[in-house]
Design goal:
Blueprint lengths: L2 H27 L3 H13 L2 H26 L10 H8 L2 H35 L5 H25 L4 H12 L1 H13 L6 H4 L1 E2 L2 E2 L14 H8 L17 H27 L5 H8 L5 H34 L12 H25 L1 E2 L2 E2 L10 H41 L10 H24 L2 H4 L9 H29 L13 H22 L1
Helix pairs in contact: 1-11, 2-10, 3-10, 3-11, 3-16, 4-5, 4-15, 5-6, 5-13, 5-14, 5-15, 5-18, 6-13, 6-14, 7-13, 8-11, 8-12, 10-15, 10-16, 12-13, 13-14, 14-15, 15-16
C-alpha cells in the first residue's frame, strides 16, 4: 500500500471517529431535561427573553467545562472509573468523594428518578381523564410510582448492560423525534397564543417587557438539570484510537447542543402557550382528542426513558463507587443487585416524602387532602402539586451535582502546581478552568437561591414562611443531615475495617499492586545482602 493511500485511510478513520464522538455528545447531552424544565425556567424568570439568554449563557459555560474535563478525565485513562466520585477521590480526597457518593444516592438519583415517575403517572391520568378525590389520586400516584421505580431498578440490577442498554439506545434516538418536530413546529405556529406574546397561562404569568435585574439570576437549577451528565463524555478519550480528535469532537458537540437548546427555547416560547413541548405537539397532532392522546403517549415514553436513565445511574454508579473504595462495603465490593436494593430504599423514601408534601400542604386554592373535587381547574391542581416538590428537588439535585463538578475544577487548577494526580495537560486549561469554575459556582448558588426565594416571594405576592421556599429549606436541611449521618456512620466503619490498597489515591489493578509488592520484597532482600 502506498504512503498516500495509508494517509487517506488514516484521515478517513479520524473523520469517522470525530463524527462518532460528535454524535455521542449530542445523543448523551440532549436529554429529557428540555421536556420538563423549560416551563419551570419561564415561570422562575418571568420573561421568555431572559430564559433564552440564560440557556445561551449556561450552554457556553458548559462548553468550557467540557474542555476542562478533558484534562480531568485523563487521570483515569489507563485504569479506574470515570465517575464524579472517583475523580473527586483523586483530585480532592476520599472523604469528599464519599460525601459525593452519598449525595448521589440520597438526593440526586431519587429526585431525578422521581420527577419522571410523577410525570409518567400524570400522563396516564391525562389519557384516561382520571378525576378522583385527593386521597385516591395520592394513593394511585404512590402505588404506580413505586411500582415503576421498583421495576426499572430490577431491570438495571439484573440486566444493566443488556435490557437497560437497549432501552437507553432506543431512548437516544426516540427522544429526538418529538424534539425535531417541536423545533420546526414552534416557528411555524408562532403567534399571539405563544408564551412570547400571551403574558401567561392559567395561574402563571410572564412578560417580555420586565427586565428586572433580579430575574436574570433565577432559573439556573432547571438549566443545569438539562445539561447534567455531559461531563461523562469527556471520558471518551479512554477508548478513542485517535486521541487528537477527542477535544474537537467534544467541543463541536457541546457548541451544537448549546445552540440547539437555545433554538428549542425560542421555538417553544414562540409556538407553545406555556413553553412546553407537550402543548406544541398537541397543536401539531390536531388539538385536543387524537392530538392530546398522541402527545401523552409520546410523553409517557420520554418519562419511561428518564426513569430508566436515572435507575441505571443509581445502580451502576454505586457499584462503581464501591469498586473505587469510596463507599464502604464489608466484602470490598457491592454488586449490581445489592446496589439496586440500597438505591430502591432511598428512592422510595424520597418519592413518598415529596409526593406526600405536594398533596398534603396548603397552597392557594389547594387545601391538601381536603381539597374539593368540584373546584375550578381541579385536575391541573392535582398534577401540579404532585410534581411540585419533586420538581424543585430534581433541579436542586442538579445544583448539588454541579457543586462537586465546581470543586473538581478548582482542584484540577491546584493540581497544575502540586502535580498530585498524573494528567495529560492541555493548552489553555488554566484560563478556561478559572472562568468556567467561577461562573459555574455562581450558577449553583443562584440555582439554590431561586428555590429558597420563589418568584411569588420575590414579587411580594406572598410571605416567605407561607411559600414553597420555607419547605424547600427544611427539605434541604433534611437532605444534608441525612448525608451527614450516613457519612459519619460510614467513616466509623472505615475506621474499624480500613481498606489497605488504593484507599486515598488512584485505584490500582491487582497486577500493579502485586508488582509493587514484589519490588518491595526485592529491595528488602538486596538491603539485607548488602548489610552482610
Amino acid at each position: 500500500m502506498s504512503k498516500g493511500n495509508r494517509y487517506m485511510i488514516k484521515n478517513k478513520a479520524k473523520l469517522f471517529e470525530l463524527l462518532t464522538l460528535f454524535t455521542m455528545v449530542v445523543g448523551t447531552v440532549v436529554g429529557t431535561g428540555i421536556y420538563v424544565k423549560n416551563n419551570e425556567l419561564l415561570v422562575e424568570t418571568g420573561n421568555p427573553i431572559i430564559a433564552i439568554i440564560l440557556w445561551f449563557v449556561v450552554g457556553m459555560v458548559c462548553v468550557g467545562i467540557v474542555y476542562v474535563f478533558i484534562e480531568i478525565s485523563s487521570s483515569t485513562r489507563k485504569f479506574g472509573n470515570g465517575t464524579v466520585g472517583n475523580w473527586t477521590k483523586l483530585f480532592v480526597g476520599r472523604k469528599a468523594a464519599s460525601v459525593c457518593s452519598m449525595m448521589y444516592m440520597i438526593i440526586y438519583v431519587p429526585s431525578c428518578q422521581g420527577i419522571f415517575t410523577v410525570l409518567f403517572v400524570t400522563y396516564i391520568f391525562k389519557i384516561f381523564n382520571v378525576v378522583l378525590p385527593p386521597g385516591a389520586m395520592f394513593s394511585l400516584y404512590l402505588f404506580i410510582g413505586i411500582s415503576m421505580i421498583v421495576i426499572f431498578l430490577f431491570i438495571n440490577m439484573y440486566s444493566p448492560f443488556n435490557a437497560s442498554k437497549k432501552i437507553l439506545i432506543f431512548g437516544t434516538f426516540f427522544k429526538f423525534i418529538p424534539l425535531i418536530i417541536a423545533l420546526f413546529a414552534g416557528f411555524i405556529l408562532a403567534g399571539p397564543n405563544g408564551a412570547m406574546s400571551n403574558g401567561g397561562l392559567n395561574d402563571q404569568s410572564w412578560s417580555t417587557s420586565d427586565f428586572d435585574p433580579g430575574l436574570f439570576i433565577r432559573g439556573f437549577g432547571g438549566i443545569l438539570f438539562s445539561f447534567d451528565g455531559f461531563i461523562y463524555i469527556a471520558n471518551a478519550q479512554k477508548t478513542a484510537k485517535h486521541k487528537e480528535v477527542v477535544p474537537k469532537a467534544l467541543l463541536f458537540g457541546m457548541i451544537f447542543v448549546a445552540i440547539f437548546y437555545v433554538l428549542m427555547a425560542i421555538s417553544l416560547f414562540l409556538g407553545s402557550p406555556d413553553g412546553t413541548i407537550e402543548n406544541i405537539l398537541i397543536q401539531v397532532f390536531g388539538g385536543k382528542g387524537a392530538g392530546s392522546l398522541i402527545t401523552n403517549l409520546v410523553s409517557i415514553v420520554i418519562c419511561f426513558i428518564g426513569i430508566n436513565i436515572f435507575s441505571y445511574i443509581g445502580v451502576v454508579g454505586m457499584q462503581s463507587d464501591a469498586q473505587s473504595r469510596v463507599v464502604y462495603s464489608k466484602g470490598r465490593n457491592i454488586d449490581y443487585i445489592k446496589a439496586g436494593y440500597i438505591q430502591m430504599i432511598a428512592s422510595i423514601i424520597v418519592f413518598t416524602l415529596f409526593l406526600t408534601l405536594g398533596f398534603g400542604l396548603f397552597s392557594g386554592n389547594w387545601h391538601g387532602f381536603q381539597t374539593s373535587i368540584d373546584i375550578d381547574n381541579y385536575q391541573n391542581l392535582v398534577f401540579g402539586h404532585a410534581a411540585k416538590y419533586v420538581g424543585i428537588m430534581s433541579s436542586t439535585a442538579a445544583c448539588f451535582g454541579f457543586s462537586f463538578i465546581t470543586l473538581l475544577i478548582f482542584s484540577a487548577i491546584r493540581n497544575r502546581w502540586t502535580n498530585k494526580v498524573e494528567v495529560l495537560k492541555i493548552k489553555g486549561f488554566l484560563p478556561v478552568a478559572w472562568v468556567s469554575g467561577i461562573l459555574l459556582a455562581t450558577f449553583v448558588i443562584l440555582g439554590i437561591y431561586t428555590f429558597l426565594v420563589p418568584i411569588d416571594v420575590y414579587k411580594g405576592q406572598t410571605s416567605w414562611i407561607e411559600s414553597s421556599g420555607f419547605i424547600f429549606l427544611l427539605l434541604l436541611l433534611a437532605g444534608i443531615s441525612a448525608i451527614a449521618i450516613l457519612y459519619f456512620i460510614q467513616e466509623y466503619k472505615f475506621k474499624k475495617d480500613p481498606f489497605v490498597n488504593g484507599f486515598e489515591g488512584e485505584i490500582q489493578p491487582e497486577e500493579v499492586i502485586a508488582k509493587k509488592k514484589v519490588s518491595e520484597v526485592i529491595k528488602i532482600v538486596k538491603a539485607k545482602v548488602l548489610r552482610r
